[in-house]
Amino acid sequence: MKVKALILALIFPFYFNAQTVNTHPEVSDTFSSYQDDESVSPYEWQWLKDGIWTGTGIGLSALGLSIIKKKDDLPENEIPSFKDPVLLQEKIDNLNFLDRWVAGKHSEKASSLSDIPFALSFAAPLALLFDDDINDHTGKYVGLYIESLATTAAIYTLSAGLIDRSRPYVYDNSGDTDDDRRFLNNGQRSFYSGHVAATATATFFAAKVYTDFHPNVQGKVFIWAGAATLPAAVGILRMEAGQHFLTDVLLGYVLGASTGILVPELHKKKNKNVDLYPTSGTGFNGDSYNGMAFRYTF
Question: Which residues form the signal peptide (predicted)?
Fold first, then answer.
């Protein structure tokens, strides 16, 4: 990758005679090879801090899942109001205007279709490992990705486990959705959309990291547009499926995208544009030198 660089403080030369330099050519070759083959990561990873962060996220996710499994069904005293057409319409009318139009949607086909872009989104960041610059830092990159997903999973599972909100299909009194499905505990997990949150985390993480590694890449608008489109598609399908209301989708989108962007941003090196490295070569007067170079990339 071509990098525009300004050598601000060029060389602190330590001169050797030609015979000495020729005796140890591997020193120059090693430094040159290292600079050519190893890309510079814009991120830093601290095993202790990030290990605690990721471990806590995974632990809280497990706790959230256990709470979800023990979630109560729709209370018995509320079931009659969901079966009575008049009382049900009153419930729908009391919903906010953003969510009212989603109540009663129940497409199982849309639910199945939503799993496709949801699953594809997880592969998007992994596909970036085919990029040579990112692949040079696979461990750090995968660690950041897992940390991002663990953060999203923790926030979502705890919210879904602790907050009761009926899904839109619970409002379906057409007979297409049987009562067992409508009134079991899974129907009380509308808040908020985990599918959208996880998808947004993955796609925005991929866009963020790629543009950080390649700040001068052409077509950034298309990269970010792609990142924004996939979770939006998942959100539309989840609403058609009657799994979530619009506000559930919007919240999942914002929280997921924020995590996908902020986790890498919080790991960026403070002086990522500054590089200090060993170098060697031949000066204008023909003398050979070894030294240190200070480079600022812009």
Answer: 1-18
